[in-house]
Description:
Number of strands: 8
Structural class: alpha+beta
Protein name: Lipocalin family protein
Radius of gyration: 25 Å
CATH architecture: Beta Barrel
Number of helices: 3
Number of domains: 1
Amino acid sequence: MAQTTLRKIAPFLAGALLAVSCSSSKKVSSPVAQREDVKGNWVLNTITYDGVPSGQKVKITLLDEGSEACLTGSTWSLPNNGNGSYTINASAAGCTPGQRNIVWSYQKSGDQVIFQYKILPGGVKPKNVTDGYRFKLVSASETSMQLQSEVSFEGKPLYINYSFSKQ
């Protein structure tokens, strides 16, 4: 009896298997941005914060450079070879204007794209630098890019958003 039932449903199972194997494949969505979208020359236009109660001021040192006034307007050169730089233009109190040489990279971590860089003091090789910065790459296009970092502020997560425009 089991063999008879199997003979009757076998053509249907084979047909179903054939239909599934021949169906069109689904396109896997690509990450938020590709490396090509990140490379180029950028200006850091604005820095905003998420996770801070309305009206509360945040005073933190960003990227070991100073306040957001130091970084706003900075120019970033991110060539394809990963050896780039950024230049602090601000002369606000506590800012040290000038160019910082960096090595940057783009990585995929699951569905998330990570942008990271290390500052290279004069003559130091990247492999000898252990400290650096990592950002979630929120978006990048031909004209704009947004990076986000998470820090702890008063025991809660604080998200710092860096918005760039392409030069």
